[in-house]
Amino acid sequence: MENEREILIAFQKGDKSAFYKIYGEYKNRVYSLIYNIVKNREKAEDIFQEVFLNVFKNKKKIDPSRPFWPYLRRICLNATFSFLRKEKASVSIEKIAELIYEDLILKKLSDKELVNLILKKLPPSQRMVLILQKFEGYSLKDISSELDISVKAVESLLSRAGKNIIKIYRLIEERNNRNKNYKAKEVEKNEVL
Q1: Each residue's pLDDT tens digit, 28-38
Q2: Is the Cα dihedral 70, 122, 43, 54 positive or negative?
Q3: Is 182 exposed, middle or buried (0-12, 13-18, 19+ CB in 10 A)?
């Protein structure tokens, strides 16, 4: 955006046309980022409105001497993360599943429904770092910066996600084995009669 610094300063002073210039410049990038995470138009639109409402409310916190997109992207990710936490929204599980299939944790799994079920059960924070790493292609440092947490915290979330995926998979397997054993006993019981 040309003259970004001047536009941001004008926006901070209450110039509505400056806000519309900012909105026009970034609306597609913001919506695209949100939609790629939630994969739902209505939810994306709600979060999108929240992002620009936050920008408007917090205009005094903007530092015109720094690039605006990283600041806006952080607001965008925080709003999306907050929405996912509140709504426990289902992120595009199928898309994430396809991307995570390549990881060692899920290499044994071939059933997409099972992978989807596992991913739905992950806490939103763990799901979010997986989205940013696998879907958005962010590095650990980028995720750290975007979510305003340390790289160690990102590593920890990814590690816990991996452990939780394995734990959830084992619980599902155990449940399925119990159901198979129960059904086998029922068949045996019915055959005896």
Answers
A1: 999 988 887 88
A2: negative
A3: exposed
